[in-house]
Write a structure and sequence with these properties.
By secondary structure, the protein is of the alpha/beta class. The protein is built from eight helices and 17 strands.
């Protein structure tokens, strides 16, 4: 009987090893760039394929290929065309999906650029691109990708822009590659850019959990020079020619600095290891933005540069939501539906609180949780009303956090755990 049991265990282990997916089973050491166009309005959204292109080497994750740590506002799944098996998945948000929650989206349709990098499949795959609005309504595009498609543009011989490693935890196969782009820096201002990029790198790595996992990150600064110095400020009637064409007044919000030129960002990083973007704007005007698995864009010469770049990277890298709120209705407080649980791990409508940080709330802490001086000082985890731009109906984990204000000296425990989960998902089995 014991011999039969041992043989059964060995057989099961052999089956598990035989069925375990490894990178080399389905992918070549190349990157496939997929350019999409996202379009629509507050009522309907559409996805269209723009172009496919390829470069040598795959810089992204080689573990946990068929699952994601966060749901996001959308995801891309690659299915092996022959077996139907999921072989790769990534999730994201986009500027388009923020825009459809604005009043303007009820009056007009617009289109937005969007790009994803995936490993090059060895055989034909079915790609399913899914967008979700803030109620969970989905829009989908399914298309076939064949690696021998003659219309996949070959970018492998394109010369990489000058760049330097500001922090190198290891090789790209094992680390997360964060690219820092210069925006609004002329050729003569590149020394200033590299200094600013080093400040951003050191500041991010001074916060947990990035500090404890610094060996899992590479930070690479790219000398993407602009024709003009500074960036566009439409409210001052100032338009400038810059590397990624960013501007303030996004969605008619003064401080919201973004860029719709997503294709240009990826053009600038061609043939350089790249998984996440930080874009530094050469201006002292306060503002910025961060979009999950898309980019961080922030101003480098405002006095709040250091805390803000960390905050925005919390958005773009970890999918964290804003924990601050407005008492007026002059801002985009329709980003989240109170009838649905937001996907961001650090805010909740209590619709499905068990899926968030319920396990981190100590016994005896009331829900909702009252703010006290001691709880604020100690980052006590609870359920504090106000977050996601709304004063009522959305709740945050602590009273103080880097995702709420610039005076906090750390991320709250819930955000730290969420960030660490993303780090480990990208680097460990």
């Amino acid at each position: 009987m014991r011999r039969v049991l041992i043989l059964s265990i060995v057989a099961l282990a052999s089956v598990a090893m035989a069925s375990a997916q490894t990178f080399d089973d389905y992918f070549a050491d190349k990157t496939l760039r997929i350019d999409y166009t996202l379009s629509g309005n507050s009522s309907e959204q559409h996805v269209a394929l723009r172009e496919l292109s390829a470069t040598d080497h795959w810089w992204g994750r080689r573990v946990n290929l068929d699952n994601v740590p966060l749901k996001g506002n959308g995801d891309l799944t690659l299915y092996d065309a022959e077996s139907g098996k999921v072989i790769y998945k990534t999730s994201f948000s986009s500027l388009f999906q923020e825009w459809i929650t604005t009043p303007e989206a009820a009056t007009i349709s617009k289109s937005f650029e969007f790009t994803l990098l995936v490993p090059m499949p060895l055989k034909a795959v079915t790609a399913e691109m899914v967008l979700r609005d803030n109620t969970g309504k989905e829009s989908k595009l399914r298309h076939t990708i064949s690696p021998d498609d003659r219309l996949i543009r070959d970018r492998s011989h394109q010369r990489a822009l000058p760049h330097r490693y500001l922090h190198q935890g290891g090789n790209s196969e094992e680390c997360i590659d964060v690219v820092i782009l210069a925006e609004g820096y002329t050729v003569d201002e590149m020394y200033t850019f590299f200094d600013d990029a080093l400040i951003a790198t050191n500041e991010i790595l001074s916060y947990e959990p990035f500090k404890s996992h610094a060996d899992k990150f590479n930070f690479i600064a790219i000398a993407s020079a602009s024709t003009d110095s500074n960036v566009s400020v439409p409210q001052d009637e100032a338009w400038r020619e810059t590397a990624v064409g960013s501007n303030f007044l996004t969605f008619y919000m003064d401080r919201y600095l973004t860029s719709g030129n997503v294709y240009a960002m990826y053009d600038l990083a061609t043939n350089i290891p790249c998984e996440h973007f930080i874009i530094l704007a050469n201006t002292d005007t306060y503002g910025g933005g961060g979009i999950y698995n898309s980019y961080t864009l922030t101003t480098a010469h405002h006095r709040a540069f250091r805390p803000v770049v960390v905050h925005e990277f919390g958005h773009s890298f970890g999918g964290l939501g804003d924990e601050y709120f407005y008492l007026s209705t002059d801002n985009n407080d329709e980003m989240h539906s109170l009838d649905h649980e937001p996907w961001e791990p650090n805010i909740t409508t209590l619709v499905d609180f068990e899926s968030k940080w319920a396990d981190m709330v100590e016994k005896g802490i009331e829900i909702p949780t009252a703010v006290t001086e001691e709880r604020s000082k100690n980052y006590t985890v609870g359920v504090y009303e106000g977050g996601g731009y709304r004063a009522k109906g959305i709740y945050r984990p602590t009273d103080v956090c880097r995702m709420r204000d610039n005076t906090a000296d750390r991320f709250c425990p819930v955000c730290e755990r969420a960030l660490e989960r993303v780090i480990l998902h990208q680097t460990e089995e």
